[in-house]
Amino acid sequence: MLKYTIRRLLGMIPMLILISIVVFTLAKLMPGDSLSGEIDPLNTNPEYIAEMREKLGYNEPLPVQYFDWITGFLQGDFGKSTRFKVPVADVIIEKIPNTLFLGVMSLLITYILAFLMGMYSGRKPYTIGDNAIAGVNYIMLAIPSFVAAVFAIYFFSFHLNWFPFGGSVDILVEEGTLDYWFSRLHHVLLPALVLGAMSTASYTQFLRNDIIENSRKDFVRTARAKGTPLKKIYNVHILRNSIIPLVTFLGFDFAALIGGAIITETIFTYPGIGQLFLDSVTSRDYPTLMALTMLLSFLTLAGNLIADILYGIVDPRIRLD
């Protein structure tokens, strides 16, 4: 396991180098540059722009610019945000806790709903309840997340007034208090429900199908022949084998949820990485955009590695050599 992990980590290095080249090239191919994204009217003087481009090295050849950028990136210097006028690392550190909180809550909702519906459908297939759950799943697969987010805001925020429609915390509460954390939970629940519920359908069907398939195998017949209670057969023998695909998805699910949160955070005006990413695109804040793209790429590669390791842990038949 250790050798496999080290080998995979070393294999991520050339992949990240290739991704960094693609990210840098795409940023340079986009119209304008970081200085074009500055909105401050005092900084629109052509002489100032030309001076800053020379100072920041934008007039250097592209290979030199890439080497300077990737060298600073490896040292933890992601550049300076042209929109916020502060280091990019500070901007990301400020926003990432909200996205992590949203991602964790979404994962909890996804797996709780998937287990409840998947277990029921797997134990009682082809019944009215199973067909109803399948219908709900197909609807969730068909509806885009941004459409669901708009309807959720319309009904639960504007009509029922159950949840706030934007922000991450009430500005009137004092930070660190119990009311503060309740307010954060209250603000994150609706976007987490949208993001988590829309990801539930595929997991429910995976679990349902695996439970049905495993219930027909020889070890289940043997357990029934020995008089093992049906509840124990489903909850111990069948479920243990059926959750293997779901556990392996956990690794890259978190990275996928962070990427999927881009639209959700923007619609809910939730101040996280997703909203920061889109704001960086619209304001041409290329240093922030490049750093976020590299971060999401790294999370995706790390998620795939975690998924492979978890697969070897939950299924002893799999050998990671």
Automatic annotation (TrEMBL):
Q: Where in the numbering of this chain does the ABC transmembrane type-1 domain appear?
A: 96-307
Subcellular location, record wording: Cell membrane
Tell me any Pfam family this protein matches.
Answer: BPD_transp_1
Q: Name one GO biological process term.
A: transmembrane transport
Q: What stretches pass through the bilayer? A: 9-27, 100-120, 132-156, 188-207, 243-268, 288-314
What the entry lists under CDD domains is as follows:
TM_PBP2
Task: Give the record's membrane topology.
Answer: Multi-pass membrane protein
The organism's place on the tree of life at top rank: Bacteria
Asked if Translocase is a keyword of the record, the answer is no
Arranged from A to Z, the UniProt key words for this protein are: Cell membrane, Membrane, Transmembrane, Transmembrane helix, Transport
Location, primary (coarse class): membrane
Q: Cellular component terms, GO, for this chain's entry? A: plasma membrane
Report the sequence similarity comment from the record: Belongs to the binding-protein-dependent transport system permease family.
Q: What is this protein called?
A: Glutathione transport system permease protein GsiC
Which organism's genome codes for this protein? Planococcus massiliensis
